[in-house]
Amino acid sequence: MTETNTLPSVGDEVMEGKTRAVVTDIRGGVVWLRRQGGGSMEWPAEDPRRLIVRRTRTEMIKDGDL
Question: The pTM is what?
Answer without folding.
Answer: 0.83
